[in-house]
Amino acid sequence: MAGMTSSARPLLNRRLTEFGTTIFAEMSALAVRTGSINLGQGFPDTDGPEEIREVAVRALRDGRGNQYPPGPGIPELRTAVAEHQLRRYGLSYDPDTEVLVTAGATEAIAAALLALLEPGDEVIALEPYYDSYAACIAMAGGKRVPVTLRPHQEGAGFRLDLDELRDAVTPRTRLLLLNTPHNPTGTVLTRPELAEIARLAVEHDLLVVTDEVYEHLVYDDAEHIPLATFPGMRERTVSISSAGKTFSFTGWKVGWVTADAPLVAAVRTAKQYLTYVSAGPFQYAIAEALRLPDAYFDTFRADLRRKRDLLGDGLRAAGFKVYQPQGTYFITTDIASSGEKDAYAFCRALPERCGVVAVPNSVFYDDPEAGRSQVRFAFCKRDDILHEAASRLRSLAN
Ligand code: GLN
Q1: Any ligand 1 atom below 6 A from CB of 332
Q2: Of 64, 123, 193, 383, which is least packed with CB atoms within 10 Å of its CB?
Q3: Rounded to 5 degrees, what are φ and ψ at 297?
């Protein structure tokens, strides 16, 4: 029988039985199979800056990074990360002991959880959550404890209930896994919310892992403030980011960790046995990218904000309720307003119905019922593609 040995023992271990193929792989395969517009998996359809690609090409040609780079990452990139944290947020990290380069944020999350958790430790994470969190907590033997973000008023986004967060902390809580700007809801935690989270972490002596991959993708009045900047947090926070979203190179898988030296040493211990190193030539290119002038970041953000509004208008015209995102490149909608009930069934049928692919948020909840009518659309696509997708989605309303 498939998936069994002759002793009838399942091949996949107990920790992973609940995890099948990721929704992103499933939906991207569906898009390819049906020739649909892919607003499911979050990746841009326009590559990052030409001059940064050129740096990678030169590195390849000049033989920089073609062999194993240093375990913690090349010094040029570690220095650029430290400079970025100082320039943007006033956070000072030693490039030699307090910065670690990883294979994307994904490896950083995995390594942090594998390094910092004992079996049975509880990890609080904001739900709906990015799918790798549940899997990595499980691989580390931890227990996930969701705190659910909820739509707080008509047309606006999702918010965290701080009382719920407080109530979720138990004597077994070891770690808070915090994602802001938040995928999939687009929520950006505010200064008062972060201050309260910091107080809670200090009071209960919790470690915090922050996933900040969308740090530069914030709109309107929203501001990304790293939790590590709050009192008492630098020594207990592992901050994670990556180049994929900020520079539109999701395939390069260059990520990093910044934290106090003992935390980086712990994460590095796990990381060195996962990939050891990765993305040699690309590390040189991202070192340059992090030093791009403010104009790059401002233009990128302004472009995405326009795309958010373009797709948001299209989704509203198609009859969906839109939860306005303040960050990321995703829009979460409620499809119940257009008479649809089940996000997963809707997303599976959507290519056939109108040639568009999206992602059901229900898979990001422990209890899929909680997100049963929520569907996520990515807006990191060319304007003409977004117009076409909006027009196709509008045809559903007719
Ligand atoms: N982060 C991307 C998203 O949310 C997907 C990355 C992946 O496929 N693992 O769409």
Answers
A1: no
A2: 383
A3: -65, -40
Domain count, the chain: 2
Asked if residue 365 has its Cβ within 6 Å of ligand 1, the reply is: no
- Asked, for residue 256, whether it belongs to a domain, the answer is yes
CA dist., res. 340 & res. 139, Å (int): 35
Here the CATH number for the domain that contains residue 307 is: 3.90.1150.10
pLDDT in tens, 283-326: 999 999 999 999 999 999 999 999 999 999 999 999 999 999 99
Q: Taking the CB of residue 57, how many other CB atoms lie within 10 A of it? A: 11
- Quick one: average pLDDT of 18-22? 88
Residues 266 and 364 in one domain: no
CA separation for the pair 348, 351 (Å, rounded): 7
What are the tens digits of pLDDT across the range 156-173? 789 999 999 999 999 999
- Select from 269, 289, 309 the last residue of a domain: 289
Identity of the amino acid at 2? A
Secondary structure element (H or E) that encloses residue 237, with its range: strand 237-242
**Same structural domain for residues 134 and 26?**
no
- Whose C-alpha lies nearest to ligand 1, atom 3? 42
Query: At which of 260, 289, 318 does a domain end?
Result: 289
For residue 24, give the ligand 1 atom closest to its CA: 8
Report pLDDT digits (tens) over 88-132: 999 999 999 999 999 999 999 999 999 999 999 999 999 999 999
- 173 within some domain: yes
The answer to whether the CB of 125 falls within 8 A of the CB of 144 is yes
Domain hosting residue 383, numbered range: 14-43+295-397
131 lines ligand 1 (CB under 6 A): no
Rounded to the nearest angstrom, the distance between the alpha carbon of 229 and the centre of ligand 1 is 27
With a 6 Å cutoff on the Cβ, whether 180 touches ligand 1 is no
**pTM of the shown model:** 0.96
Which ligand 1 atom is the nearest neighbour of the CA of 28?
8
What is the helix (H) or strand (E) element at residue 317, kind and residue range?
helix 294-317
Same domain for 55 and 168, yes or no, is yes
